[in-house]
User: Which sequence fits this backbone?
């Protein structure tokens, strides 16, 4: 239950600290006094999106904090999973909104994500606003109410998980089939590309080697002519000229003779001998090159043809190196191999679809059967409660029909049917007036309160559209709910207000600085009499209204 609420700098609420008791808590006030602001502050604790507009004028930030006690074990599990403290079942939930619009959330002073705040709050309190009555028109809300009554939530969760798995498997199957079809369409092309690259057998660095060989072959005649000229100049073949080798040998002999007279001649002789030997080695290499130079036109044609092939592959496949061609060839190879792998995976996925479909259909059938089994009892109880609110001829039933296709929540369409006259029931969205809708919604909430462990329920003018004895009976129903749980009823009806265990008044006032602010305070017994009298008579409270208020309070 909500034990304590603190609000600071939230719109028109500058500072509010208030405790709440168990049972039925009534909240009333003039139209525009700030009751919706109070609900908005609680909405922050429910995890609704925050922005800077909620901060009071001139304030640095706004803070909303609530203390809850008697928290269920399911909340304990959520907190332990997130690392937040349990604190023996008492939770302090706080949300702080900064001028930037960003907010921080805390549970027992531990920072937590807003998603966790939302999950925890949904197990602590439920706000039924006027808009929530319209949720009754949502087909899923109707199905959800029936499932909660039937105790189907675990079964529905299992079905939803199976449905999600089945959808994922079907999507995977479709993707694999598309991929396989695409690869099959491209198979001949991929094979042709692969075979062309494979037959070319391009090696890394090959083009560089071919380029060097082509230059030699194309210039073989000039190379041979030049090298042979060097050999002829250094080692004449006609015998009339002295070779460089002979000249160097003669010079070495002369220097050796002169070394007896000139000491440095020995060193010079050694250096010339080294030159002679180096020259001899150079001439040997030149002769080797001359003999190895290939001037074959056939070989030149083959080299140029090979180079042309590689360049054409570069252009065709948008590559610039032999390594890129090799990588591309392996890619085409993998595409051809992957066809078999995809077919194997597709067969495996199809087998999983078969098994999951069997489980999925079984769960859907069980879920449908459970809904049909519970719908009669659900309809009877709701109908009995509605008739107790002065709709004696009213008929309420649940229509369950097969859906066109399986959805996230089963294979059923669930529609609530209603007729205030007992004839020709039609969907509630088409027949119920505002007052009838309020009564139907209250009956559903009262019924579900027996099956859902919700410690605090907040009604925001659920009695809209009713008055007189109907309002009195709705008040009694809400009061009955307050025996098992904490119920807040924001109301304009004195018949409902008189039923509460405690009564709080929301009021708006203008401060000395000219700002308007809202506040909430608990009423004493006498103040409560006067507030109910105001609700009965309007702005001018009459003695008759006061007497009527006393009578209402005594009759609760």
Assistant:
């Amino acid at each position: 239950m909500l034990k304590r609420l603190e609000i600071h700098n939230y719109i028109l609420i500058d500072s509010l600290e208030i405790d709440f008791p168990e049972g039925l808590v009534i909240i009333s006030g003039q139209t525009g006094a700030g009751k919706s602001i109070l609900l908005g502050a609680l909405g922050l604790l429910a995890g609704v999106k925050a922005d800077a507009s909620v901060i009071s004028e001139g304030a640095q930030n706004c803070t909303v904090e609530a203390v809850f006690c008697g928290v269920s074990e399911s909340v304990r599990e959520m907190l332990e999973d997130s690392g937040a403290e349990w604190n023996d079942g008492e939770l302090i939930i706080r949300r702080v909104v900064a001028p930037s619009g960003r907010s921080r959330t805390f549970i027992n002073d531990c920072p937590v994500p807003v998603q966790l705040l939302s999950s925890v709050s949904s197990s602590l309190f439920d706000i039924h606003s006027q808009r929530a009555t319209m949720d009754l028109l949502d087909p899923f809300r109707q199905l959800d109410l029936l499932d909660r009554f039937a105790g189907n939530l675990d079964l529905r969760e299992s079905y939803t998980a199976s449905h999600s798995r089945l959808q994922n498997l079907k999507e995977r199957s479709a993707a694999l089939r598309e991929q396989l079809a695409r690869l099959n369409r491209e198979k001949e092309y991929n094979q042709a590309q692969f075979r062309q690259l494979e037959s070319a057998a391009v090696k890394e660095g090959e083009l560089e080697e071919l380029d060097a060989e082509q230059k030699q072959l194309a210039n073989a005649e000039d190379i041979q002519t030049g090298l042979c000229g060097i050999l002829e100049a250094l080692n004449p073949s006609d015998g009339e000229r002295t070779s460089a080798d002979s000249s160097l040998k003669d010079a070495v002999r002369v220097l050796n003779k002169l070394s007896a007279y000139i000491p440095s001649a020995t060193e010079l002789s050694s250096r010339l001998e080294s030159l002679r030997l180096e020259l001899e080695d150079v001439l040997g290499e030149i002769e080797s090159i001359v003999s190895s130079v290939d001037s074959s036109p056939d070989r030149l044609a083959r080299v140029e043809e090979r180079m042309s092939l590689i360049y054409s592959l570069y252009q065709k496949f948008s590559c610039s190196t032999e390594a890129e061609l090799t990588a591309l060839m392996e890619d085409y190879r993998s595409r051809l191999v992957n066809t078999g792998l995809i077919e194997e995976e597709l067969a495996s996925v199809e087998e999983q679809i078969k098994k999951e479909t069997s489980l999925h259909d079984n769960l859907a059938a069980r879920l449908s059967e459970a809904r049909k089994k519970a719908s009669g009892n659900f309809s009877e109880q709701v109908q009995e409660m509605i008739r107790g609110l002065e709709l004696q001829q009213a008929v309420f039933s649940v229509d369950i029909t097969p859906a066109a296709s399986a959805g996230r929540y089963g294979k059923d369409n669930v529609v609530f049917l209603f007729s205030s006259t007992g004839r020709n029931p039609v969907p509630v969205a088409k027949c119920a007036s505002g007052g009838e809708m309020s009564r139907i919604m209250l009956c559903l909430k009262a019924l579900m309160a027996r099956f859902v462990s919700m410690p605090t329920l907040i009604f925001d003018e659920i009695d809209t559209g009713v008055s007189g004895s109907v309002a009195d009976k709705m008040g009694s129903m809400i009061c009955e709910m307050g025996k098992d749980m904490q119920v807040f009823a924001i109301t304009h009806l004195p018949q409902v207000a008189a039923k509460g265990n405690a009564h709080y008044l929301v009021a708006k006032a203008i401060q000395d600085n000219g700002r308007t602010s809202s506040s909430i305070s608990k009423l004493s017994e006498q103040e409560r009499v006067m507030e109910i009298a105001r609700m009965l008579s309007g702005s001018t409270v009459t003695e008759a209204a006061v007497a009527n208020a006393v009578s209402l309070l005594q009759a609760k």
Summary: The first strand starts at residue 2 and ends at 10. The CA atoms of residues 448 and 541 lie 38 Å apart. Residues 523-556 form one domain. Residues 322-387 form the longest helix (66 residues).
